[in-house]
Amino acid sequence: MANILVVEDDIFVSDMLSQVLTRANHNVKVAKDGEDAVMVLKSFVPDVMVTDILMPKKSGTTLISEVRAQHPSMEIIAISGGGRADPIGYLDLSEELGAAISFAKPVDNDAILMTIDLLLAKKK
């Protein structure tokens, strides 16, 4: 079991990820955007953060940079649909900023669960 923070402005995506991760016996908190995530991180330091890239108020790329500076051992997974643009550029940037791995939306549930398991196993 891991503590996981899901940062996603799309309620349907955040609900889906939260349910999948909870069913896999993870402790999950959800933040609706980057600013909300900063508030959550004041009282909850997760093992893994799954963050969208394109969000209002504070983007995922900004959040990744800030989290990487404050919590260097936290594993970060970036996800993006890319909006009107190609998501690959955003995902590549997220990895340059410190995300361990990135996924284009829609995210494959099995792939994200397996990735979390691998990231957590690497820490042991």
List the helices and strands and how they pair.
Layout: E1 3-7, H1 11-23, E2 27-31, H2 34-40, E3 48-52, H3 60-70, E4 75-80, H4 87-97, E5 101-104, H5 109-123
Parallel strand pairs: 1-2, 1-3, 3-4, 4-5
Helix pairs in contact: 3-4
What this model shows, in words?
- This protein is α/β, with parallel strands linked by helices and 124 residues long.
- It has a single domain, classed as Rossmann fold.
- It is built from five helices and five strands.
- α3 (60-70) packs parallel to α4.
- It is globular.
- The protein starts with a strand and ends with a helix.
Any descriptors?
124 residues, Rossmann fold, 5-stranded parallel β-sheet
The structure class reads alpha/beta
Helix content: 40-55%
N-to-C SSE string, H for helix and E for strand? EHEHEHEHEH
- Poorly predicted runs are none
Q: How would you characterize the largest beta sheet?
A: 5 strands, parallel
Any idea what the CATH superfamily is called?
Response regulator
Q: DSSP helix count?
A: 5
Q: Give the number of domains.
A: 1
Q: Mean of the pLDDT scores?
A: 91
Oligomer: single chain
CATH class: Alpha Beta
The N- and C-terminal alpha carbons lie at a distance of: 13 Å
